[in-house]
Amino acid sequence: MTDGRELSFDRVADEYERTRPGYPPELLEQVPLGADSAVLDLGAGTGKLSRVLAERFRRVTAVEPLANMRKMLERVVPEVDAVEGTAERIPLDDQSVDGVFAAQAFHWFDKSAALPEIARVLRAAGIFAIVWNQGDDDRPDPRPSEFVHEVQLLHDAALRRWENEPEWEDLLRASCLFDEVHDRTFVCHDHVLDRAGILDNLRSVSWIASRDDGEAVIARLAALLPDATYAIPNRANLIWARKR
User: Fold this and answer.
1) The whole model's pTM is what?
2) What CATH number labels 5-137+165-190+233-243?
3) What percent of the chain has pLDDT over 90?
4) In the list 47, 58, 99, 147, which could disulfide-bond 224, CB 3.0-4.6 Å?
5) What are φ and ψ of residue 221, in 5° steps?
């Protein structure tokens, strides 16, 4: 269940769009959907995944509950149909899409309500895919170790709300709504930002944007980060399953 922290994204739509990493198109080559497919980007934010989907599929609908995020999406990805809605109440007809994609937003969903909704809007044998970015710990991080350590402490504290949630692959299996779950694959890519971009990126994460002392936290982190451009090692992850 959500605690309202996700609402903080609506205050940082500009920072989110400018500084969040995108998704490498080759990641979607793993998903067995043809170019003529109609697909849904659920919890689409500013359209980081929507724009990649639009290059690959005939029709893309983006569902996003937050007005400022949706307004940004409509501006930067005008070829996508952007509509207000949530994962728990998807504003689409039964069996109306061939694929549903959920990117960084999936961890905010109420899974017990969202997964049946996703199955409802999928056509027979349709695909549900979860895509997300994360740091690549197998490659060296060019940012100062003190900075990385402080960011990690803040991040780990925020993740405690999900510490008892099963792995997403296991959630899909346990739902009994999908056939074989294809475990995660990933594509390495760099997220290149200058110092100002890194700080704005941190302003866009819920575990700072939702804090009353968020700017004080940013100032403390800024003192640990020299002025430079950084290629931050990143990887895009994918798991997918076919509707039963």
Assistant:
1) 0.92
2) 3.40.50.150
3) 85
4) 147
5) -70, -35
